[in-house]
Amino acid sequence: MKMQIKRNLISVSLLAILLMVVMVSGCANKAATEDPQITLATTTSTYDSGLLDEVIPAFEKETGYEVHILSKGTGASLELGKRGDADVLLVHAKDRELKLVDDGYFVDRKDVMYNDFIFIGPSNDPAKIKGMEKAADALAKIEETKSSFVSRGDNSGTNMKEISIWSEAGIEPSGDWYMAVGQGMGEALRITDEKQAYTMTDRGTYLSMKDKMSLEVLVEGDPILFNQYGIMAVNPEKHDVNYVGAKALIDFMVSDKGQEMIGNYTKYGEQLFVPNAA
């Protein structure tokens, strides 16, 4: 009888050990296959504003993911996503984003935040656009006076918005006064300041660099200058991407904590972005 009990105890112990081995093995396999790195393609305007320096470390600390950031214009970021060279995108060209979602390139798109575009220029304002209510009218005055204008010229969300406003004004800009520099927002602002020219910028990047420039805000408030940012994951059915990590970042950005961090981010006492995931 005692021998049988002993055998039963040994069997139970062996079974328990076997179950533990299976569980540990399963956890090890999961850890080995889970990708801890996420590639985020985002706009130079978002990157240059400094917002991601606040938000991304908080996400990494909370989740254990490591985020590799590719700072490109929206057009270039969208192309990276379409090729599967990024996992998640934070961009600002909503009409194009929604079209690409419909086309199956991206999934889980969410509004995250907004700010606005503004026209800035030198204090002497040679084209006399200061205080104009319509952005298209301001561009018409700049073209009429052949005042120097710097365009990003990089197929970014900002560049696409600028082109649409030129189109509304009925103008196709060309000539020595119009400089398409093919650069991100921060570098375009540096060139604009150096040339004492006009440009269109998102407010966030302008505020983040305000202390390094002598340029002033001259035109603002036209509804056409509204600037919505969205976040979306690359479709895992099209590419081998880290969809789980991408979804984790999307969820964080639209969470109460993420939205609060976005809303609390300021420069020189001014809020750079307004959270609107809700």
Explain what this protein looks like in three dimensions.
Helices cover 47% and strands 23% of the residues. The N and C termini lie far apart (69 Å). The protein has eleven helices and twelve strands. Helix 6 (135-145) packs across helix 7 (157-168). The protein has two domains: 35-115 and 227-275, 3-Layer(aba) Sandwich (D-Maltodextrin-Binding Protein, domain 2); 117-225, 3-Layer(aba) Sandwich (D-Maltodextrin-Binding Protein, domain 2), CATH 3.40.190.10. The chain has helices at residues 2-33, 44-49, 51-63, 74-83, 94-102, 135-145, 157-168, 185-195, 203-209, 243-254, 256-264, and strands spanning 37-43, 66-72, 88-91, 106-121, 149-151, 178-180, 198-202, 216-219, 226-234, 266-267, 270-271, 274-275. It is an alpha/beta fold and 278 residues long.
